[in-house]
Amino acid sequence: MRLELFNQVANLIGLKKRSREAVWLIEIEGMTCSGAARQMDLSVSTVSRAHARYRRAVQAINVMAPHLPM
Fold first, then answer.
1. Which residue range or ranges hold the RNA polymerase sigma factor 70 region 4 type domain (predicted)?
2. Please, are residues 51 and 33 in contact by the beta-carbon 8 Å criterion?
3. I need a labelling partner for 18 at 20 to 30 A (CA). Which of 49, 50, 53, 63 fits?
4. What is the pTM of this model?
C-alpha cells in the first residue's frame, strides 16, 4: 500500500498521529498490535480499536470501488 493511500484512509476516519503511526506499523511493517502499542506508548486497546476502524474503512472502500466512477 502506498503512503498516499494509507494517509487518505487515515484522514478519512480521523486517526490521530500516534494511532496512525501504530496502524502503519501493523499494516506496513508487519508488527503485532501489542508491539505497535508498546513502541508508540499507547494501550493495546487504543491501537486495536484504531486498527479495526482502519480495516473497516479499507473494506468499505473495496466494496464500493466497483460502483465508483473512474
1. 15-56
2. yes
3. 63
4. 0.87
